[in-house]
Amino acid sequence: MKHKERRVVVTGAGRGLGRELVRHFAEAGHTVWGTTRSRSGMDDLERHLMLDLMDEGSIAGAAKSLAEQTEGIDVLVNCAAVDARNFGVEPDRCDIHEISAEAMASVFQVNVIGPLLVQQHFHGLLCRGQNPIIVNISSQLGSMVVGDTVGSDVAYNVSKSGLNMLSRRAAASYAGDGIAVVMMHPGWLKTDMGGPGADLEVSDAAQQIVATIQQQTFEDSGSFIRWDGVVHPW
Ligand SMILES: NC(=O)c1ccc[n+]([C@@H]2O[C@H](COP(=O)([O-])OP(=O)(O)OC[C@H]3O[C@@H](n4cnc5c(N)ncnc54)[C@H](OP(=O)(O)O)[C@@H]3O)[C@@H](O)[C@H]2O)c1
User: Fold this and answer.
1) Helices (H) and strands (E) in the chain — how many of each?
2) Beta bridge partners of 77
3) Nearest-CA neighbor of 232 among 147, 129, 105?
4) Strands (DSSP E) along the chain, which ranges?
5) Confidence at residue 44, expressed as pLDDT on a 0 to 100 scale
6) Residue 19 CA: which ligand 1 atom is closest?
7) Atom of ligand 1 nearest to the CA of 192
8) 175 lines ligand 1 (CB under 6 A)
9) For ligand 1, atom 40, which residue shows the shortest CA distance?
10) Cross-strand partners of 31
């Protein structure tokens, strides 16, 4: 996909990394649809789809609406995600001793089942794309060698490990359709999720992520990489 216009969908585009990815893809000359689950943030998007990862009807509706606008898409970035704080859990009450079954299930619903359903409903559009690729934004906290010692929110850690396995299964299953699937740790970012003490400015990371995605080939499918393209340990 080098230096060629691509049709891109980014979920969670109202704020944080998703919003910056849309901006940098557009600046690089690509055609980008950003999804939001509410009207918040949608006015800044040139092309917008309404999509709530907790509502399969809305995911199906977004795919249907997109199919009326384009024959296919080339890049799907599953960026939207949550941690237990999004469901009212105090940051100091989401470790292995205290996390509730409800919080575990809710985070899993958004971070794993959500991307699964997005992949399913956008599969037809990807099949009609050029060198199509799914980029599932994961986290170092889903890594067995990083996440077993780092991170305070066990629901988030487990969900990102689950997303990695989902992505590996998708890479294998979609290979016959020519669809590549990669997982990406985007870096520790200064967003609402990452907080102000994070390592990276979100715009800088988004710029690098767009460049890294442009360099991915079908042979990279199944890889877990960082924002800068370096392979991430499992
Ligand atoms: N920030 C970090 O340091 C960091 C590190 C590693 C990995 N990541 C990953 O990077 C990605 C982006 O994170 P971020 O820092 O940009 O997070 P963020 O600032 O908290 O933004 C999260 C995004 O997800 C959307 N979202 C939440 N629930 C949703 C739902 N049910 N349906 C659809 N969209 C929903 C939010 O939309 P609303 O505005 O409607 O809530 C928002 O656009 C995530 O996959 C995250 O796990 C982040």
Assistant:
1) 6, 7
2) 10, 135
3) 147
4) 7-10, 31-36, 48-50, 75-78, 133-137, 180-185, 224-226
5) 87
6) 43
7) 19
8) no
9) 37
10) 7
Residue type present at position 20: E
Q: What three-state secondary structure class fits 50?
A: strand
Q: What pLDDT, in 10s, does the model give residues 68-113? A: 999 999 999 999 999 999 999 999 999 999 999 999 999 999 999 9
Strand pairing of 180-185 and 7-10?
unpaired
Whether 21 lines ligand 1, by a CB cut-off of 6 Å, is: no
Q: Which atom of ligand 1 is least distant from the CA of 53?
A: 32
CA 12 / ligand 1 centre spacing (Å): 6
Provide the residue type at 32 as one letter.
Answer: V
pTM for this prediction:
0.97
Q: Is 30:211 a contact under the CB 8 Å cutoff? A: no
14: buried, middle or exposed (CB in 10 Å: 19+, 13-18, 0-12)?
Answer: buried
As a whole number of angstroms, the distance between CA 150 and CA 169 comes to 25
137 Cβ below 6 A of ligand 1: yes
Q: Ligand 1 pocket check: which of 21, 24, 37, 54 to mutate, most ligand atoms within 8 Å of Cβ?
A: 37
Q: Is the pLDDT of residue 3 over 80?
A: no
pLDDT value at 1 more than 70: no
Distance of CA 141 to the CA centre of its chain: 14
Residues with Cβ within 8 Å of residue 92, at least 6 apart in sequence? 152
Domain range 7-226, CATH architecture: 3-Layer(aba) Sandwich (3.40)
